[in-house]
Amino acid sequence: MKDINFLKEKNARSLWHPMAHPADSLANPPTIVTGAKGVRISDVDGHEVVDGVGGLWNVNLGYSCQPIKDAIAAQLDALPYYSIFRGTSNDQVIQLAEELREFFAPDGLTRAFYTSGGSDSVETALRLARQYHKIRGEAGRVKFLSLKKGYHGTHFGGASVNGNANFRSAYEPLLAGCHHIPAPYTYRNPFNETDPAKLAQLCLAALEDEIAFQGPGSIAAFIMEPVLGAGGVIPPHESFMPGVREICTRNGILLIADEVITAFGRTGSWTGSRHWGVQPDFACTAKAITNGYFPFGAVMIAEHVAEVFEGDETGRAAIGHGYTYSGHPVGAAAALACLAEMRRGDLPGNAAARGTQMHRGLLALQDKHDIVGDVRGGHGLMSAIELVGDRAKKTPIDKGTAARVQETAYQAGAMVRVSGANIILSPPLVVTEADVQVILSALDKGLSAA
């Protein structure tokens, strides 16, 4: 490794960071992470902290999961790469598909289409949704509905159904036919409604209204996260996703569950859809499927959708879509090992228990610090606090203050994530009670420094 001074000096000279202004990375050098063990990361200066971000929602089993590392190494020796385009396959992807079929059986999902990551999975689900309707003779179903504040990756399809202007405005015009309804976000919504159950019904009514306005026969799918993640951790009322499912079914609209964050235990249930008792038509997965150790994803497809494709005799079901790394054997081997390790421990149970601890701790910080306007979470290890300059007026905090909270918390022992006015927490699902307390204590110091 190059010396420390070289890394610090050259960090942003030849490199643009995702989700950042290039000039900002030059003016404010990011933390250079050089090591990790368990649930802790260490930087180039040797400072070690608890990772309250979990990589990027994906390192559910922590950084020392040796069976996954061993599986990757062994597969590199056996078959480092081959495509699974028409005419070829490999042993790892076949075995993984059977494991995923079993894992997602309670969600009604029985087929896997492999991708390279979350954005790829969303793009795949959107395309297959349109194709599904064309196979069935409803070629006019091309539009997509989604939630404001929702996040669905950065491809043009995903950006088009995204509900946050930060991921859209610089790249417009985007895909036509994408329409958004209000999210069940109790802290800020157009209805000024703070009761979660009432807000859920208002948002469902808005969905019904939008479907009637667009015409049910023009809509291919509704895509949503079971718990909104990057938009600021917005858990809906328990009635919301079942209500969406019923409306979609009644109108012939497919339901795509974006489970890139929520699958594999994050919500305290094995999947976000299962958490709300819903069976979607597609589920987009990635992130934790390999514990973040290898870029990989899978779109899971419901049996009734699969039957339409597999029973087609017109040729319209031929899939003209895929990626060079769809079904990468190393990624599949990593996913197989990861699934085995996740099942070995009670990940959802620990996520639920530690998530409750985290949520209660954040509510206590809200009582202590006026800068905390809202606390969201309570469903596994997905938590956020929204920072405000004036609690009564809900005035968003300035960027510099949020960065100061983050830096102080980091120096005090925990990496937390800033997203606009939100501090987002998504630690590995194997964190202990003591680890969560470290995060809360560090955040307390960060808020005190605001």
How is this structure best described in words?
The structure is a single chain. It is built from 15 helices and 16 strands. The chain is an alpha/beta fold. The protein has 2 domains: 31-64 and 346-448, Aspartate Aminotransferase, domain 1; 68-344, Aspartate Aminotransferase, domain 2 (3-Layer(aba) Sandwich). The strands form 3 sheets. The chain has a 7-stranded mixed beta sheet with strand order 4-10-9-8-7-5-6, sandwiched between helices. Strands 11, 12, 13, 15 and 16 form a 5-stranded antiparallel beta sheet that branches. The longest helix is centred in the last third of the chain and has 22 residues, at 347-368. The model has no long low-confidence stretch (mean pLDDT 97).
Structural class: alpha/beta
Using the coordinates above, name the CATH class of the largest domain. Answer: Alpha Beta
> What's the structural domain tally?
2
**Number of distinct helices:** 15
The neighbouring-strand order within the major sheet is: 4-10-9-8-7-5-6
Question: Given the C-alpha coordinates, what overall shape results?
Answer: globular
Quick description:
The protein is built from 15 helices and 16 strands. It has 450 residues and is of the alpha/beta class.
Q: What are its keywords?
A:
Aspartate Aminotransferase, domain 1; Aspartate Aminotransferase, domain 2; 2 domains; 5-stranded antiparallel beta sheet; globular
